[in-house]
Amino acid sequence: xxxxxxxxxxxxxxxxxxxxxxxxxxxxxxxxxxxxxxxxxxxxxxxxxxxxxxxxxxxxxxxxxxxxxxxxxxxxxxxxxxxxxxxxxxxxxxxxxxxxxxxxxxxxxxxxxxxxxxxxxxxxxxxxxxxxxxxxxxxxxxxxxxxxxxxxxxxxxxxxxxxxxxxxxxxxxxxxxxxxxxxxxxxxxxxxxxxxxxxxxxxxxxxxxxxxxxxxxxxxxxxxxxxxxxxxxxxxxxxxxxxxxxxxxxxxxxxxxxxxxxxxxxxxxxxxxxxxxxxxxxxxxxxxxxxxxxxxxxxxxxxxxxxxxxxxxxxxxxxxxxxxxxxxxxxxxxxxxxxxxxxxxxxxxxxxxxxxxxxxxxxxxxxxxxxxxxxxxxxxxxxxxxxxxxxxxxxxxxxxxxxxxxxxxxxxxxxxxxxxxxxxxxxxxxxxxxxxxxxxxxxxxxxxxxxxxxxxxxxxxxxxxxxxxxxxxxxxxxxxxxxxxxxxxxxxxxxxxxxxxxxxxxxxxxxxxxxxxxxxxxxxxxxxxxxxxxxxxxxxxxxxxxxxxxxxxxxxxxxxxxx
Length: 563
Hints:
By secondary structure, this protein is an alpha/beta fold. It has helices at 18-33, 55-65, 77-80, 84-96, 111-141, 165-179, 184-194, 206-210, 268-281, 285-294, 324-329, 342-357, 360-407, 413-440, 451-471, 476-487, 514-525, and strands at 2-8, 36-43, 71-74, 100-103, 153-155, 161-163, 228-231, 234-238, 245-249, 256-259, 304-306, 313-317, 320-323, 340-341, 490-497, 505-513, 529-530, 533-534, 554-562.
């Protein structure tokens, strides 16, 4: 019986040796059953309430599908999942691969155990969440810490908080400056010029100073600085598909408050002055609508990077872009003060995407590099395969001799033990050889000679129709699909002005992932809707026979544009 071991612990606050301890006890259990341990898998500091964010479990399931082992041994079922849906998913996938699940308590887990354990695991998480909430509420009511470290304070085990004098003085300085009419951006810029560390050790930004009124955070909106502990503003929910924790904001009517005068940093008069200025400059409904219009996402929002500091470009006015590092953090972080036309940047990038990134020569070069790397790795696997094959042949002959001895009645106990050891070693080596063989079975990509031209034509069509899609409310979903199609081809767009002078040249570097390009082409060749619409299957020659599994290269093209 070929066994794979799996271990997991949930939090980075737990002992890292937990993985080793789980594997050690499972290995002893497997040896006691006479099983050959051919593989081990682990996920450290990852909750069992999700699957997608656990690379160890995903690798295990993939290996099970390849027939690498016969049973998965875990300390307990909750190591595999703490969610009924996910436990059933793992059980069914392993069952379909002909792989059993075993624990220290049972050599074979059935559907009944999966159901019962799954329910118990979910109830455990619900109970743990309730206890955590109760503890946080108790801490909040006595003015103790309820979450991560808050700037201006230092917490000790148990949640007790103390004021950090130097940070408290920075907080009072920010309040005095804002009350005196200085903007949040200018405050952040001055702190950065002086080298004052931000709340997370980095630089200050305007949003760090101003915060968000709907969440009550930021230096100027943190009520604890005025001696009031506020909690129950946000609840965290975990996405069971991805494992990510998602903050859900609660309405102010549900916020809870308790006095914490001992933790006051800002006096009442200064707090009220800042509040009055915030109310005055908060903006009217019309101003809010105008601001919302300027914040309308662009085609490349989040992909435009400043070549001077690396921060994103952000909206300056309705149709102009500016470096967020300069605008929000000041010249100590970035000196790039140029504003750029968003429409011109988007048009130039679309042209570059069509005419340069997707040139047939660029894609052909990628395929050549991929083939060379694939052959190099294949040769390396051949070098690793030969000694495995020789050793497996030796062990097979050894086992044959022991079988002959048994049939002749000449076998001794020592010979039988050596035979079992040889069989165990052979199982392990055969699993390793099977993994190498599976990698060799993956063919290199094959590119249709007209694929790049065909794809470039679709990009051109998309460019021509994008403006019309954006203007037609009835085509909002189509516009989103068009934007997603374009963005899927791009890793980043770096904008580097050559000088601060208006109209001076700007270098635009477009970095795209050709691996994504080939992957999308493979989907299209199988009749799946790709990023620019459905191509259908080319029955004369597939555009790609498979996506690349080894390399993820990027291609960068740079052009200079007068903006």
